[in-house]
Amino acid sequence: MRKMTIAALASMLAAAPAFGQSAPSGAVAPHPAKPAAAPANSATHAASAKPAATASTPESRSAAALALSHEATYDESTAQRIREAALSYGDIAVRGGWPTIPTEAKFTLGVPGPHDDLLRKRLLMSGDLAVDKASGPHDESVVESIKRFQLRHGLAATGTMTPRTLAALNISVQKRIRQLEASLERLAHVNFSFGPRYVVVNLPATYAEAVENDVVVRRYRVIVGKTEKPSPTVTAEITSVNLNPTWTVPSSIAKAEISAHMRKDPSYLSRMHMEVLGAGDAPIDPRSVDWSGTHTPNFTVRQQSGTWNALGAVKIDMPNPYSVYMHDTNQPNLFNDDYRFDSHGCSAVRGSTMCETSRPGC
């Protein structure tokens, strides 16, 4: 098996300015390209049954727009693009920064408003609007510029002035510069050797990218660690893939959570298809175990493979100092949440999960 390198990044890559209609110099969500190829079995599924329509949400529309792009958000040129963006924002700051749009401002397509030129000036200064569109009513050119701004800042690309979009537009250029500088500082501590094939988990964005020959061939939603149990920044090589794995529960989870479940419900382990093992993996009667949770467990809890397993159907080994790894999940519905910071440090990836030390329902 050919090795692949993975980097889980804790850096928040602040959106960089675009210039007119040219490519952004450091966009977080690059502008759409040709759609990715459909799965090989998609035609078979389409022929057999028509999938049920899913509700369209701003988050899903934003994700769909991002999925159309084959440009990597993290590559060898990322740091340089951020430096250039910081310099561009510096020039804007020297000129006094961009204007603030009043919170009460209203923008309706085709309807002239008192703040139309102010919005155009703001979008023009950050490079989201072409220089020949500096004035006029709220039209399609402004809508497309707003979409571009939204994509670069991780917002749903609706083209409408949502409260989150207005708040992002009104963040000062000085604060944007500080964000870019913070990103550079974080990236300076990431020791990552780019190769022809690598995987990047963008922790703040809760997305993962599989990159081959500088092109994103797959992009997935991910579930990452809670703020109190954050996913670590780690660089490692993928060495093997295990199908239908068992899950050895980390001692911290066994102490804090498994023990609590067992105190409330002694049948919990059997219902979860878990077993207690001692030295040499010898089975232990759960009734003989102290489930008070006051001591570090001197036993191992292991979940058997199957549809109930927290690791799902796949575990991908990537040896590293944190003993974290990637895996599937048995609760794919969690990927539908807008807020996906809900694990014990894992980076569960939709469709082909990349996860670290996990919990049932990761």
Question: Can you summarize this structure?
Answer:
By secondary structure, the protein is α+β, with helices and mostly antiparallel strands. Helix content is about 25%, strand content about 15%. Among the domains are: about 100-170, Muramoyl-pentapeptide Carboxypeptidase, domain 1; about 240-350, no CATH class.
User: SS-based structural class?
Assistant: alpha+beta
Low-confidence stretches: 10-61, 352-362
Helical region count? Answer: 9
Summarize the biggest pleated sheet.
7 strands, mixed
Mean pLDDT: 78
Number of strands: 14
> What Rg, in angstroms, do the CA atoms define?
24 Å
Proportion in helices: 25-40%
Strand content: 15-25%
| Distance from first to last alpha carbon | 27 Å
Structural features, described:
The protein has 9 helices and 14 strands. The chain is of the alpha+beta class. Among the domains are: 98-171, Orthogonal Bundle (Muramoyl-pentapeptide Carboxypeptidase, domain 1); 240-349, no CATH class. α3 (78-94) runs antiparallel to α7. It is elongated.
